[in-house]
Amino acid sequence: MRSTFSISSARRGRAARLLCLLSVFLVAGGSAQAQKLAPPVRFRQVAPDVFVHTSYHKSAGTTAPVAANGLIVRTSTGALLVDTGWNSDQTLQILRWVADSLHQHVRMAVVTHAHEDRLGGIAALRANHIRVLGSPLTAKLALAQQLDAPTPSIQPYTLIRAGRTRLEVFFPGPGHAPDNVVVWLPRQRVLFGGSLLKDATATTLGNIADADLKQWPAAVRKVATHYPKAQVVVPGNGAPGGPELFTHTLRLLRPGSNPQTRTALNSK
């Protein structure tokens, strides 16, 4: 199935934008205390009008925070967001950065699967009247985990248009999670692989509690075939790279290449 969304331009005053951002403080308050241990959200540009936001989660007793990447896409009609921060406080930081650095507000968000590092900040977006889209399966899985769920509008192939910017959302099949999707920006040749792809320094597959190890390699190959022009590839965790991340992820998925992770799965 295929669906298309269009975002028209709209103007919004600075005062209204500030009021909207302030409203989310009530939402963010509950998570702020827990995140005092975590570094602030970081931002970097990876292509014209495309920025990676990286948020961190640190639990008491752990040695290092876990980083999670998402995208911000600047368009002529406002910003598009791919994945939230881990929580509402971090998502508020993202909204502030977009307002202060890009002088825009986020018009729409897409979440790529039902894990906390992808949709943990939905409440902050909803408090700011930002539409949050995900697949029906993502919405179902989020509700089953008692997480805020996106509007279930994303089909296996979905095209989002915002001015001259096109954003494609594609479901290649189960991998890291049963519902993981990737996002493609054809004009900038940027692919957000999310947690389906591992960064170049990864030595394990990471969290595979919900993974389908049998179908994951096929999903990676399908994405590589579908988007052969990708120049910048952004994984869900770690540094962005290029098409070599497909090969690296497939290498980690080979039988016997990641014994510790596979043992953890078998002992569930």
From TrEMBL:
Transmembrane segments: none annotated. NCBIfam families: bla_class_B_core, bla_subclass_B1. It is found in: Periplasm. InterPro entries: BlaB//VIM/IMP-1, Metallo-B-lactamas, NDM-1-like, RibonucZ/Hydroxyglut_hydro. Belongs to the metallo-beta-lactamase superfamily. Class-B beta-lactamase family. Pfam families: Lactamase_B. PANTHER family: ACYL-COENZYME A THIOESTERASE MBLAC2, METALLO-BETA-LACTAMASE DOMAIN-CONTAINING. Residues 1-34 form the signal peptide. Its EC number is 3.5.2.6. It is an enzyme of class 3 (hydrolase). Keywords: Antibiotic resistance, Hydrolase, Metal-binding, Periplasm, Signal, Zinc. Monomer. GO terms for biological process: antibiotic catabolic process. It comes from Hymenobacter mucosus. This is beta-lactamase. It catalyses: a beta-lactam + H2O = a substituted beta-amino acid. Its cofactor is Zn(2+). It comes from the Bacteria. Residues 67-237 form the Metallo-beta-lactamase domain.
